[in-house]
Design a protein that fits this description.
Length: 500
């Protein structure tokens, strides 16, 4: 099915979606036929697999899929040349925050500085290397690496370093979900509330740098897209302007690449292809035989292109014409990987909640807290707001992620076609909310830095912290491994219009 967005330059409303999503609607079929005549700006939705013809470029717009509401294209508000400057500014702001004290407390007339490195080293040397490595990666390595990779991308574009460019763009796409300075800042605030009864707290100037680096990273992660980099790589002689709204416009305007990337428009067969294989074309070969082509979206550079289906004899894996990544209708073994990760996360979530996650030694007494008992102690200490945050991030979010992903997987197996947009909202919610579960581990790392003072006052993680860290990682990987186009396969079989 091919859908034109010629008049849909804003976010599609629920009513507008319903008016065009019914395969029996004659106006819907008319839109399909009109769209098939000119397919230069065809983009396949990465959320549901619907092929959409984008309208002409405009300076300010945000285009969304009329079926699943996934964003297809948006105006770029950040100039291409500004990215390296922001990345360098992020590094200058973040490096002092890593090595210099963020906060300083006065405990028993002893001044104790707290840095990000101190907490990770304390976890590693105290017998919790996996938890320490996870905290270090999310709070230090991922943000620094993200800023450096942006610089590597632009250097590779300048000097045409294909290997470095491909590695940097691939890693940027995966790494953005693991940059968690915002979670660390919230965890730092919670730790300050928890130790205010024990010590006086002073904020360090490096905390300003951490906040500034987070603000810069928000801009970079939100506005930098891998398809924008690949446009610049494909067209090295044409400078990329600041507003580059459409993912295929730059290539379609260039005759040299138009022949490589445009679709054959002779015929569109809706009967043989579901929406995940959205556009099916037939192109005559030299011997006069009909040769079937299907459209496929590259999950890395976001180029929609025509490919030949794999043959049963001597199959060859199709690869993207632009970035050489393997092309798949559906990510291979997506269901199996997601189920395996979810089952493992379900196994670990019980020890994560039943075993102590933190152990506090004070005045010779050993106080062990599970996640739930820690929330109860916060409520009894009149820190209701902090208790709600910890309860939501450490208990509600992990269980909700597992429950939502299990629900989505079950609907795929049952072939459900109801509440499609709700399922897409749940899918995007799980991917966004996943990182906030790391908050409890960040709090433990900060508390170890501030309160690990020997026999008088000692704070260490409990065995539940290891299980909780495993749950966080497994659920995030499960959300990443689920291909959302699986949610639409049964819908495509039911509502795919036939060509008469």
């Amino acid at each position: 099915m091919l859908l034109s967005l010629g008049c849909y330059t804003e976010r599609m409303t629920e009513k507008g979606y319903a008016s065009v999503a019914n395969s029996a609607d004659p106006s819907y079929q008319g839109i399909i036929k009109n769209a098939s005549m000119n397919d230069d700006n065809i983009v396949q939705c990465g959320g549901c697999g619907l092929a959409v013809q984008l309208p002409p470029p405009s300076k300010k717009h945000s285009l969304h899929c009329p079926r699943c509401n996934n964003r297809l294209a948006r105006s770029q508000l950040l100039a291409f040349s500004a990215e390296p400057a922001l990345a360098i500014a992020c590094l200058f702001a973040l490096l002092p925050a890593v090595f210099l004290p963020l906060i300083t407390i006065n405990l028993f007339d002893v001044t104790i500085p707290a840095t990000i490195l101190n907490g990770t080293f304390a976890l590693i040397t105290d017998g919790f290397p996996l938890v320490g490595i996870l905290v270090a990666f999310c709070a230090i390595v991922a943000p620094l690496l993200y800023a450096n990779l942006i610089l590597i991308v632009h250097v590779s574009l300048r000097w045409r370093l294909r290997g470095a460019f491909g590695f940097a763009t691939h890693t940027l796409h995966w790494l953005k979900h693991w940059v968690m300075i915002d979670v660390y800042l919230v965890s730092l605030a919670i730790s300050c509330f928890k130790v205010r009864d024990y010590a006086d707290i002073q904020l360090g100037w490096s905390l300003v740098g951490l906040v500034a680096s987070q603000a810069i990273l928000i801009v970079l992660i939100t506005l930098t897209k891998s398809d924008r980099y690949w446009h610049a790589w494909t067209l090295p002689d044409k400078p990329l302007p600041a507003p580059q709204p459409l993912s295929g416009a730059a290539i379609n305007e260039n005759p040299q690449f138009q022949a490589n990337y445009r679709f054959a428009t002779q015929e569109i067969n809706h009967a043989t292809a579901p929406h995940s294989d959205i556009v099916t074309n037939k192109k005559s070969s030299r011997d006069g035989k009909s040769q079937q082509q299907t459209s496929c979206l590259c999950r890395h550079c976001h180029l929609t292109q025509a490919i030949q289906p794999m043959q049963s004899v001597n199959p060859t894996q199709p690869r993207c014409q632009r970035c050489a990544s393997p092309l798949f209708e559906i990510a291979p073994h997506s269901l199996q990987k997601t189920w395996a990760l979810l089952i493992a996360a379900t196994v670990f979530i019980f020890p994560a909640n039943l075993y102590p996650i933190s152990i506090l030694m004070t005045n010779g007494q050993r106080l062990e807290d599970t996640i739930m008992s820690g929330v109860v102690s916060l409520v009894s200490s009149d820190m209701l707001f902090i208790a709600i945050i910890i309860f939501t991030a450490s208990i509600v979010v992990p269980f909700a992620k597992i429950a939502i992903l299990v629900y989505l997987l079950i609907t795929v197996h049952l072939g459900s076609t109801r509440h499609q947009r709700l399922k897409m909202k749940l899918f995007h919610f799980v991917r966004w909310i996943g990182k906030w579960s790391v908050m409890d581990l960040f709090v433990i790392a900060i508390m170890m830095t501030l309160l690990d003072r020997g026999r008088l006052l000692d704070f260490t993680p409990g065995p539940g912290a290891i299980a909780f860290g495993v749950v966080v990682v497994l659920t995030m990987l499960a959300a990443e491994s689920l291909d959302s186009r699986l949610l639409w396969k049964s819908y495509d079989r039911k509502f795919n219009p036939s060509s008469d």
